[in-house]
Amino acid sequence: MSDDRGRRPRMADIAREANVNRITVSRALSRPELVAKDTLKRIEAAIARSGYIPNQAARGMKTERSRIVSLAAPAQMSGVYGAISELLTEALHRDGLIINHFPLTDSIAQREAAMREMAGWCPAVIVIMSSVLTGPMREMLRVARTPFVELLSYDPDSLGSCVGFNNQQAARMLTEHLVSRGYQRITYAHSANPLNALNVTRLEGFTDAIDAAPGVEGRELRVAPSYADGARLIETLLADDKLPDALLCASDMVAVGALEACRRLGIDVPGRLAICAVDGTELTDVAHPSITSLDFPLERVAEVGAEEIRRLAAHPDSNLRRVEVEASVRPGETT
Amino acid sequence: MSDDRGRRPRMADIAREANVNRITVSRALSRPELVAKDTLKRIEAAIARSGYIPNQAARGMKTERSRIVSLAAPAQMSGVYGAISELLTEALHRDGLIINHFPLTDSIAQREAAMREMAGWCPAVIVIMSSVLTGPMREMLRVARTPFVELLSYDPDSLGSCVGFNNQQAARMLTEHLVSRGYQRITYAHSANPLNALNVTRLEGFTDAIDAAPGVEGRELRVAPSYADGARLIETLLADDKLPDALLCASDMVAVGALEACRRLGIDVPGRLAICAVDGTELTDVAHPSITSLDFPLERVAEVGAEEIRRLAAHPDSNLRRVEVEASVRPGETT
DNA sequence: CTGAAAGCGCTTACAG
DNA sequence: CTGAAAGCGCTTACAG
User: Fold this and answer.
1) CA atoms within 13 A on the CB side of A324
2) What mean pLDDT do residues A188-212 have?
3) What are the tens digits of pLDDT across the range A201-228?
4) Which of A303, A301, A307 is nearest to A327 (CA)?
5) In chain B, which among 147-206 make CB contacts under 8 A with chain A?
6) Which domains, and CATH codes, for chain B?
7) How far, in Å, is the CA of A116 from the C1' of nucleotide C7?
8) Which bases on strand D have an atom closer than 7 Å to a protein beta carbon?
9) Which phi and psi (to 5°) does residue A73 adopt?
10) A55: chain B residues, CB-CB within 8 Å
11) Shortest CA distance from A65: residue in chain B
C-alpha cells in the first residue's frame, strides 16, 4: 500500500496519487477551506494511505517562522528548574510550541556555543533561566533578532522580557529572618557558579544582610546542588568542628540532604543548627521538619512566562514586558 | 559594522564580504582544511564581524540528517522521568545532539499528534519513556524510518531498541516482599493511566503476586503522581476507615507525600502501615524513615540509553539493541 | 477553485 | 584550491 522504496513520502508523492499539483496539497494542509471538497477528500485519502508527515524544517524555512522555543536552563530537574520546566513544557505544548532543551554547563565557551546552536534553529523565542549573559551572547541575541525571555530573576535591565522575583532581596530577607531569630554564625551554601545569575544576585543579598547585622558572622561555602552533597556538607562541617548556627541553602536539595544528615548524626534542628532553603519548591514543605524557605509563586512564574512566550511567538516585534512577582519568607520548623 | 537592515545575515552576505562564492563559505564551515589559508581568514573575519550563525533548518534539509533527538516522556520532572531526562539531556548535549522535549498527555489523539510532530522534524532518533504505542504510532515510526529507543521498560518485542528493566517482575518482587513481611491487605496506588506502559506491566506484576499469595487481599487505587496527592490519599483512606496494611506506590512522590501524612496523622510506619515505592529515585533514600523501594541503576539506564541513541544517530540502519538492566528490592525502614 | 514560477538558506557532486 | 549548477521539501504571491 504505502511507498516502501526507502524514503519517507513527500508532498509530491501525495500530489501524484491525488492527481493534483503540490501546491494544492500544501493548501489542503494549511487552508483547507480554499480547496474543493472532493479534491480535499482525494488528498486526505492519499495522505492517510501513505502516512505522509510534512517536513517541518522545510516548512519553517519558507515561512521563516518556527514553532520552536529554545529553553536554556541548569540541568538539575529535581529542583526549581525542573518544576518550572515541567509547567512551561506542558503549557507551551498546548499552544503547539515545541521545546528545545539546552542544559547550561559551567563553561562560558560552551554556553556561548549553546547559544549559537539555539539561534541557529531560528526559534520563535529563546528562554533562559538563571544564566549570566556574556557580551558575545548578547550580541548573538541582537543579531538573531529572536525575542528573548528571562525567567526566575526579575531584572529591570533585562535584554528581553522577564518574569521573576528580586533574588537579591529574597536572599537578604531570608538572612534577616535568621538574624532576627538570634542566629549569629550563618553559612550560605551555594554552587558558587559565577555564570548562574540567581547565584550572583543572591550572594549579594546575603552579604548585604550580614553587613547590616553587627556581630553576625557570615561565611559562604561551595556545594553542588544534590541531596548527597547536602548530607556530605554537614558531615564535613561536623568533622572539622565548623558547624555554624544556621545554614542558608541555595538549593532545596542541599537543604533536604543536610536535614537528613542532621537527623542521622543527632544534630538538633533548629536547636543546634537552623536550616533554610532559598528555592522553596514543594520539597521543603513535604520535608520533616518542614524547611523554612522562600514563598514565591512558582506556578505564576511559569504561567506568566508561558503567556509572554506565546505572545512573543505570535508578535515578535511587540514590546518587552517585565513582570516582578512577590516573594516572602515562609517560616518552617527548621528555624 | 554589522548588517542592521532588518534580517539576520546569510551565507551569501558573508560570501560577498569575503569576496568568495557561497560554496566556499560553506566549505570553510564544514571542511576548513580544503580552503586556502588566507581565504579562510577573510571568511572567518566576515563571520565574526557580522555575527553570522548558520541556519540549521536549511542545513538539515540538504543533509537529510538532523541532530535532533525527540524525547517523549510524562511531564513530571520530580521523579524518575526527570532524573533520566536530566542525565540524558546532558549526555546527548555533549555529543552535539539537540533534545526536543514532548510531554505525554492522557489523550491518545494528542499522543498521536505529538508523534506526528516529532516525526515531522526528521529527528535523528525518537526516544520514548513509558508510553504504550498505538497502531497509528507504530505506523508513523515505520513510515518515518526514524530509529526508535524505548527507555525504562525492557520489552523483548520492542519496535526499536530498548534499555530498561522488567517492570512486571519488579512490581511482583516488591509485592512479594510485602507478603513475606506478613502484610495481608495491600493496596497498589498508581496513576491508572492505560497509556503509561510502565503502569500497565507493573499492575500485572502486582496482580500476579497477589494471586499467588493465598489469603492476601489486593486492591488498586488511582492517585496522581504528586506529593500532595500522596498525602491526600492517606487522609481519605483514614477518613473512610479503609487504611490497608501496606501501600505500594507507583510514584516516589506519592510515597513521600503519604509518609509525611502518616507522620502528621500519627499513623505508625511500618507498624500500622507499610509504605513501598516502585521508582526508587534518590528521594526514597533521603526520606525519613527511608522508604523501601526498587533498586535499579537509573544512571545505567541513562548512560546505556545515551550510548544507544548516539549509535543510532550515527548509524541509523544498524541493528537494534535490547538491554535489560537488573532490578531488586532495596529494603528501607518503612516495611 | 487550481497551477506554473520563483525562492527560503544551505550543500552536494562535479568541473575546472 | 574555487565556483556554476542543481536540488533538499516546502510555501508565497500571482495568474488564470
Assistant:
1) 13
2) 95
3) 999 999 999 999 999 999 999 999 999 9
4) A301
5) none
6) 11-54 (no CATH), 64-165+299-325 (3.40.50.2300), 167-295 (3.40.50.2300)
7) 26
8) 1-5, 7-13
9) -155, 160
10) 61, 120, 122
11) B57
